[in-house]
Amino acid sequence: MKLIHTVKPFFSSLLLLIVLNLIIKPFWVFGIDRQVQNVTGLDAYGSYFALLNLCLMMQFLLDLGITPYFNRKFSAESDHVKVLAAQAFTIKLLLGLLYTMAVLLMALFTGVANWSLLSMLMILQVLTTFLLLFRAYLSGAQQFRQDAWLSVTDKIFVIAATGGLLLWPGISGGVTINRFVLIQIGGMLLALLLAVFFLYQHKKEILIIRLHISDASVLKASLPFALNIFFMTALFRADGFMLERMVDNGDYQAGVYASAFRLTDAVNMMGFLVAGFLLPYLSRNWQNPETSQLVLRVCLYFLIVPAIVIAIGGWFLSDEINQLLYHSRAPEASGVIRILLQCLPAMALIQVYGTHLTATGHIQVFLRVSAFFALLNIGLNIFVIPAFGVRGAAWIAVATQSVFALAVTYLAVRKTGLRFAAADAALYLVLALVTVLVFKWLIL
Hints:
globular, mainly alpha, 0% strand, single chain, 86% helix
């Protein structure tokens, strides 16, 4: 009973987060983002998808590991949270300039021409990283309910605003990619205002922004987190940008890839949310092995069971999914959907065990492994994309992410003393086999 009482606040707040996101995020992914692609076309959306991936890959400069580092520090050193928060905010302002210059240089180097869209996407990412910092403060203070509401605030605004333009296209000419990004910026500003309100409500004071002599040491300590974010983002998103740059019909192929990536990203969204809760909780409680083991197992069950079912279901029903969501605008998207959904079980393992490695202070070993697989993924895509295009990129994603997930799981067990539950692995294999048989029977 004592163990259940200990973990009850965590799971009750996690349940709120899940419920809110299950209500809001499907509307965002399938009702708004998907329809924007259908309305604007594969080429326009493919250009947006490629530039978004470029901005996300360079986002490690905007953060430099500040958010995960301070998330862990806010939890472990709650007595010094005011100084820590002021340090983090000050550094973020300076890194915003560094990020902007780096993205512009990369855009010049790779021949990007759509500067207006790129500029808006950079602004969106700068605002997003500040929201993530505020959420890290709140979750580090164990204010999980406020963090849960902040996770959907911007999407609620975008659903309302973009949905209005989709329903009544006569308003200002309907939806374009640029207007879509501007609406996202508006939603992020609203979420930031709500975050400031929650922060003031918690501390009853406004955090003072000032420079600290220790800022350099903070950056040095957070650098491994930053590099890990960069390599992880490159592993998951570099292929979308490479497709657009490396083949003749790059915008179109990037749009096709985005059609499938949207589905994996939607399912993996829960993994990101769970990881955001796990990191501060494990940072404070990892020395209690019984508690951490229970939390990890429950979180993995929650993520990997639907991942297995959806991955196998997607293999059998990819044609129907493409027809339902995209009205066969890109028939070749069915094959990419079938392949890319196979990344889902690997993503679940990475979210749970990668977060555990980070929370327990094993960031260096996690960094080395993520760097290896990110470079491997990019190296393979350099040769595969020109020859096989979008389907080749999808297969490389499945292969590299799956082996990476096994490596992270092995390291988490070996480095942190987790008990490896062979029964759980057997259960997942049985679930996969039963799911295959069920779908085969349904199709026949």
